[in-house]
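Model it.
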Amino acid sequence: MILTEVNWGIIGCGNVTELKSGPAFNKVEHSRLVAVMRRNATLAQDYAKRHGVPKYYSDASKLINDPEVNAIYIATPPDTHAMYAIEAMHAGKPVYVEKPMARNYQECQEMIRISKETGMPLFVAYYRRTLPAFLKVKELIENGIIGKPLMVNIRLYKSSGDKDQYPDKQSWHVNPEIAGGGYFYDLASHQLDYLDYVFGPITEVHGIAHNLAGYYAAEDTVSAAFTFGTGVTGTGSWCFIVPKGSEEDIIEITGTKGKLSVSSFLHGDVKLTSPEGTISFSFQNPENIQHHLISQVVQTLQGEGECVSTGSSASRTNRVMEEIVKEYYSLLGNETKI
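Modeled.
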């Protein structure tokens, strides 16, 4: 399908849309935000007023079927991604959905099936595929600066939040029935998707997941080993209960001539280490971090390009994460995770 002007409706105008994504829809050429939806009508109205959005709804179906809206951005928790995406595509609207794409790989597959059946494009908000630091890493690898890539190591260690220890205050991010998993699903998804972009699909993966602190049902400590189709091997460790001062956020890519290091979430410098020493590359992200990806989505809908983050690519990340944690959830029982 080709859209001359892309008129967006947002389902779920919560925190992620305040700065990361929402304003970008009005900054991209031939794109505008015309309607927002939140179940709390007062909050939806407040968002619309503050961001200059003409319409607001408290019913997602009404937004989806608004004739002025011709593209849908789904920014709800993952448990409703598939439901809203499928409804929107059946209504003839292309979809841009937050990450992770859905709670599980099966839901991803159904979303892709409906996309093919209806002819409606499906995009996922893995915006690191468009950020300058991550593009620089990909460029350096493709130009052979570190030689032949050999291995990747991910380390992400974060301290638990004060609310994690109190069930009545915990975020939906640690409720597997809503999120698909825990913080691992929320954060590691960005890292694994980016590496899929650099090296292609992961073809073999093994994982170990545990809940060591007992604050919530979801996993809090995860280790994995994986291999890409290109032959590059990788390891990853994620822990969300380390003490302050032991936090770490790094992706290291080692080749036959050197090593690249980049932070996943601190948006710092890219470091290139070789026998000659270390060089740093600094970058500035857009004010709205999803701006470049949203621009790609709009251009694709206008028939002028091809977005780098689609339902097909994003579903692979769900498959990998599911494989890493499957034993943990099989031991807990199906009632813990959908």
